Amino acid sequence: MNCDEIRELTPDRLDALLDDERARAVDDHIASCAGCSAERASYGRFRAALYAPYPVPAHAPAAHRRGGAGAGLVRYAAAFAAGVLLTLVVQSARAAAPPPPPDRPVAEPVSETPPPVLVPRRIA
Ligand SMILES: [Zn+2]
User: Fold this and answer.
1) Is the pLDDT higher at 28 or at 80?
2) Which of 19, 69, 70, 107 sits most deeply, having the most CB atoms within 10 A of its CB?
3) Is residue 65's pLDDT more than 70?
4) Ligand 1: distance of its center to the CA of 46 in Å?
5) Is 81 exposed, middle or buried (0-12, 13-18, 19+ CB in 10 A)?
6) What's the 8 CA to ligand 1 centre distance in angstroms?
7) Longest dimension (CA), the chain
8) What is the CB neighbour count within 10 angstroms for residue 26?
9) How far is the CA of 87 from the centre of ligand 1 (A)?
């Protein structure tokens, strides 16, 4: 696998979603590739921050403290915002990458047969 494929699989590797063979291939590549190793570490830090409990100041309203009424909603909103952020980061990274080469002609060949001509019927 090349670096692009490894970087695409790294999130799934961290979430333990790959089969043993692909997990080993990702691990072996990351062990020998400085670029992918740095990418994995960066994603790992982002992921750790995403799942870490966020600090709540002591003077925050009771609803924002752990276990208070509405705490679940606040945590849900924070997780949702983090998910949106992750989506934007991934999309901007993909947009920055050059497009893959087309493996087939971009345009279909034009048909030689002209389209049928529709003639309006005269109503008597
Ligand atoms: Zn690599």
Assistant:
1) 28
2) 70
3) no
4) 19
5) exposed
6) 11
7) 87
8) 23
9) 22
Measuring CA to CA, which residue among 44, 25, 39 is closest to residue 97?
Answer: 39
Which of the pair, 93 or 7, is modelled with greater confidence?
Answer: 7
Name the token pair of 86: 């992750």
Q: What is the mean pLDDT of the chain?
A: 83
| CA dihedral sign, ordered 88, 93, 97, 100 | negative
In 1-124, which residue ranges form alpha helices assigned H by DSSP? 3-14, 20-32, 34-51, 71-96
Residue 68: other Cβ atoms inside 10 A? 14
Q: What radius of gyration, in Å, describes the C-alpha atoms of the chain?
A: 26
Task: Please give the model's pTM, rounded to 2 decimal places.
Answer: 0.43
**Residue 36 Cα to ligand 1 middle (Å):** 4
> Residue 86, exposed/middle/buried by CB under 10 A (0-12, 13-18, 19+)?
middle
Closest among 3, 13, 81, 8 to 44, alpha carbons compared: 13
Give 29 Cα–ligand 1 centroid separation in angstroms.
6
Residue with tokens 């090349």: 2
Q: How confident is the model at residue 103 (pLDDT cuts 50, 70, 90)?
A: confident
